[in-house]
C-alpha cells in the first residue's frame, strides 16, 4: 500500500509540477508557452494514455487487464529508485528553466539559453527525466502495452528534440554551438 501511495504521489506531483511551471511561465511572460506541432500533440496523447494506465493500475486495474508480466522483486525495487531519479531530474529541469520554459517550439518567441544547473549535464533534462520516470514505472508494471507506448513516446520525443536543436541553432547561433560542444543531448559525464 505504501509503495502504491509513493508511486501515485510521485506521478501526480510530476504532472502538477509540469502544470504549475506552465502556469507560472505564462503568468510571468503574459504569452502562450505552447508550441503547435503534430509531434507535440502525439506526445501529449501518448503521455496521457500512459499516465491514465499507470494511475488506473495503481488504483483499480488488475495486472491481467494490461497483460502485466510478473518480474522478480528486485526489478520492482530498481523501478522504484528509477522513478525517484526521473522525478528529481524533472523537478530540477523545471526549476532551472524559469521563464525560458516552453512546451514545444514557439517560433515567435526567443528565450534565454539555459546552460547551468541540470542543463550543464544534459541539454534535454526534462525529456530525459520523463523517459527515466516512465521506464521506472514500466519496470514496476511491466506490460507490453506500456512498453509499446513508451517506445513510441521515446521516438517522438527524440524527433521533437532534433527539431528543437535546429531551432535553437537558428535562434541562438554560436552560443548554442558552444553549449552543444560541451553538453550531450541526453547525458554528459564531466571529467
Note down, in words, how this protein is organized.
The protein is an all-alpha fold and 191 residues long. The protein has one domain (2-182): Four Helix Bundle (Hemerythrin (Met), subunit A), CATH 1.20.120.1630. It contains six helices and no strands. Helix 3 (73-97) packs antiparallel against helix 4 (125-140).
Tell me the total number of β-strands: 0
Please indicate the percent range of residues in DSSP E strands (runs of 2 or more).
under 5%
Question: How would you sum up the major sheet?
Answer: none
Overall mean pLDDT stands at: 89
Instruction: Tell me the CATH architecture.
Output: Up-down Bundle
- Judged by helices, strands and strand pairing, the structural class is mainly alpha
Q: Give unreliable regions as ranges.
A: none
Helix count equals 6
SSE order: HHHHHH
The portion of residues assigned to helices is 55-70%
CATH class membership: Mainly Alpha
Head-to-tail CA distance between termini:
42 Å
CATH level 3 topology = Four Helix Bundle (Hemerythrin (Met), subunit A)
Rounded to the nearest angstrom, the radius of gyration is 17 Å
Shape: globular
* Overall tally of structural domains: 1
